[in-house]
Specification:
CATH topology of chain A: Rossmann fold
Oligomer: heterodimer
Structural class of chain A: alpha/beta
Shape of chain B: globular
Strand content of chain B: 5-15%
Strand order of the largest sheet of chain A: 9-8-7-10-6-1-4-5-11
CATH class of chain A: Alpha Beta
Strand order of the largest sheet of chain B: 1-4-5-8
Order of helices and strands of chain A: EEEHEHEHEHEEEEHEH
Order of helices and strands of chain B: HHHHHEEEEHEEEEHHEEHHHHH
Radius of gyration of chain B: 21 Å
CATH superfamily of chain A: HUPs
Number of strands of chain A: 11
Radius of gyration of chain A: 21 Å
Number of domains of chain A: 1
Number of strands of chain B: 10
Number of domains of chain B: 3
Bound molecules: adenosine monophosphate
Helix content of chain A: 25-40%
Distance between the termini of chain B: 50 Å
Number of helices of chain A: 6
CATH architecture of the largest domain in chain B: Up-down Bundle
Shape of chain A: globular
CATH superfamily of the largest domain in chain B: Butyryl-CoA Dehydrogenase, subunit A, domain 3
Chain lengths: ~250, ~425
């Protein structure tokens, strides 16, 4: 069984991102980049399926600039077997990503596609769903547990009311939620070994997909800064202020 | 700024650095934060939880330097020392003692890779890889002398007091070693001993491989140190300790061959202290941007702001020298010895100044155990004396530049 995992390079979740002063987007100059955390979980799940003898090959795909090869290399160091980098220097919208992933899926014929539930840069939470629709495959989003049967899949999903368990037949698309697993660190020896694993470089044109944007960003601004706290003299004053000023009592 | 420039690193180096950083941020820093007030009460066994060593195991950082043919990792040799430096810095950003504990394994592994007979490598490297608690130690310093032995003149009086004498097919070692990094915990030791009392230290010192369970070998004490307390420094005694003849690593010329260990070692250690400096800067930058005095966050006070600039400049200057020196070692440049000693001294003195700024910018909080800044200060301070004192390092630098004359005032006039 073959697994395709989609991994996106995003701003490192630990860095504070600022908006450009002209409001056209986030300031990404010299900001540290990393693999989208949900995609690390997706890779980890694929690697665990392989280690359990349930999967035979893991192919990692990333759409992004040349530097996204770091993200693919991380996936290879975690245990993926090979990578595909589809070079795109501009922002790529979820629909275009989904179309590219469909084209890769057509070519690679995986039994399972794993993606993150959302990319933490623009929080779209759309790609996995769009991909399943384009492929006409079943989808299980927000997975917190994945159990592989014989040509079937049982997935527990984190939904608003609690947990929902659904059954799917393969091939299928699964998007990984936070509690699916705890991803491993890429170990230093595996990073050196990953150097020898292949990464194929492609362009969107190779798959006949246009990156023409369909969305327009009107303005990007920072959240309002929090006001400094104040010290109150007594419990009575606290209650009075919560009532009169904060309006929460 | 402050951190290594990504553009100067290979893809693998970046990924390794990132992996180490995640391990440090997720595992080490929380442990250190939870325990820095307990540094003084913990027993040697409690210093560093199993999670920390397990984490180190997961990223594979305990066994760098082990050759690939024995199950280790094949770093690019042309940039091996630079990679070591990068990783050592990253670990020390979390805890400098942890860095000491782990890098000691790399340094000794390099030495074994170069000088141990193959059958002993085949015996010990797999054990090192298998056991997450397996540590290595390098035993040079003695109660009567350490770096002060590196006098500008080579006299028999400066020789090792620990002696090894050949008796049949065994070497018999007698003596003491002190201030040994990992000495308290290690499973395998490289020990230096005098094998020819008639000549100077450089011509009459040999090195031996000594397993911990060898009869006649005793670990007598764990030293309680002012800094780097998560590495257990130990004292060792050899009493008619018999070592099979094949455990001799380098005969008579061991001090010269130890250059392999020392050059990489100085860079790794300087980079470790750089990590302490980076931690000082990160914490202080965070503090001055949040802590309010006189109605303004600290960094708005000009006196505070310019001190932060001074910290940043010193860190960058240390980084530049460490990078130049590590490149020189990797390329086996004729100035490598000088440069790595320069990097060591400079990293010790400049980062001490960085740590002093950090302490002072934290005001009273800087002196409190619960803030952890005093820990960084102590970790920086102990480095002035680790792996040679500042004065001895300077002596080595100048002796290398002016071998005939520098510092020879007290020696016999030639
Ligand atoms: N540029 C990309 N390259 C590879 N995978 C992507 C890309 N964008 C999105 N994905 C995948 O789709 C998931 C959801 O992304 P999104 O719909 O943008 O929130 C991510 O977690 C990735 O697994």
């Amino acid at each position: 069984m073959k697994i395709l995992v989609a991994v996106k390079m995003v701003t490192d979740p630990n860095v504070k991102v600022r908006a450009l002063t002209d409001g056209t987007g986030p300031d990404l100059a010299s900001v540290k980049m990393a693999m989208n955390p949900f995609d690390e979980i997706a890779v980890e799940e694929a690697v665990r399926l392989k280690e359990a003898g349930l999967a035979t090959e893991i192919v990692a795909v990333s759409i992004g600039p040349a530097k996204a090869s770091d993200t693919l290399r991380t996936a290879l160091a975690m245990g993926a077997d090979r990578g595909i980098l589809i070079r795109a220097d501009q922002a790529v919208e979820p629909l275009a990503v989904a179309k590219l992933l469909r084209a890769v899926a057509d070519e690679e014929a995986p039994d399972l596609v794993l993606t993150g539930k959302q990319a933490i840069d623009d929080d779209s939470n759309q790609t996995g769903q769009m991909l399943a629709a384009l492929l006409g495959w079943g989808q299980a989003t927000f997975a917190s547990r994945v159990k592989l049967g014989d040509g079937t899949l049982e997935v527990t999903r984190e939904v608003d009311g609690g947990l929902q368990t659904i059954g799917l037949s393969l091939p299928a698309v699964v998007t990984a939620d936070l509690r699916l697993n705890e991803p491993r660190y890429a170990s230093l020896p595996n990073i050196m070994k990953a150097k020898k694993k292949p990464i194929a470089e492609k362009s969107p044109a190779d798959y006949g997909v246009s990156l023409e944007p369909r969305l327009r960003v009107i303005r990007v601004e920072e959240p309002p800064t929090r006001q400094a706290g104040i010290k109150v003299g007594s419990a009575a004053e606290l209650v009075q202020r919560l009532h009169n000023e904060a309006g929460v009592l | 700024m402050i951190h290594a420039d990504d553009g100067s690193l290979s893809e693998e180096q970046r990924l390794m650095r990132d992996s180490c950083r995640s391990y440090i941020d997720d595992v080490v820093t929380p442990f250190i934060r939870a325990n820095w007030q307990r540094e003084w009460d913990m027993t040697p066994g409690e210093r560093l939880s199993p999670e920390i060593l397990q984490g180190a195991e997961q990223i594979g950082v305990r066994t760098l330097g082990v050759p690939e043919e024995f199950g280790g990792i094949d770093l690019d040799r042309e940039s091996e020392v630079r990679t070591f430096a990068l990783i050592s810095e990253e670990i020390a950003r979390g805890d400098s003692g942890l860095s000491d504990k782990l890098v000691q394994n790399w340094k000794v592994s390099i030495l074994l890779r170069e000088f141990a007979p193959k059958h002993l490598q085949a015996k010990w490297f797999p054990r090192l890889l298998e056991d997450p608690q397996f540590l290595l130690a390098h035993c040079l310093t003695e109660p009567r002398g350490a770096s002060d032995r590196w006098l500008p003149y080579n006299v028999p009086e400066a020789s090792m007091n620990t002696r090894a004498v050949l008796d049949g097919d065994h070497w018999v070692i007698n003596g003491r070693k002190q201030f040994i990094s990992n000495g308290y915990d290690a499973s395998l030791y490289v020990v230096y001993a005098n094998t020819n009392p008639k000549v100077g230290m450089l011509q009459g010192t040999s090195s031996f491989l000594v397993p911990r369970d060898t009869p006649g070998f005793t670990v007598t004490k764990c030293n309680e140190t002012m800094g780097c307390r998560f590495m257990n420094n130990g004292e060792l005694v050899f009493e008619d300790c018999r070592i099979p003849a094949d455990h001799l690593l380098v005969k008579d010329q061991a001090m010269g061959s130890a250059g392999q260990y020392f050059r990489a070692g100085k860079i790794i250690q300087a980079a470790k202290n750089l990590g302490v400096g980076v931690a000082c800067f990160e914490r202080t930058a965070d503090y001055v941007q949040n802590y309010v005095q006189g109605g303004r966050i600290l960094i708005k006070h000009q006196a505070v702001a310019i001190r932060l600039a001074d910290m940043a400049t010193r860190i960058e200057a240390v980084r530049a020298l460490v990078e130049r020196a590590s490149k020189a070692v990797d390329e086996n440049h004729p100035d490598a010895d000088i440069l790595c000693n320069m990097a060591k001294v400079y990293a010790s003195e400049e980062i001490m100044k960085v740590a002093t700024h950090a302490l002072e910018l934290h005001g009273g909080n800087g002196a409190m155990l619960e803030f952890g800044i005093e820990k960084l200060f102590r970790d920086a301070a102990i480095f002035l004396h680790m792996d040679a004192t500042v004065d001895v390092s300077n002596m080595k630098i100048i002796k290398n530049m002016f071998p005939k004359t520098a510092g020879k005032y007290a020696g016999p006039e030639e």
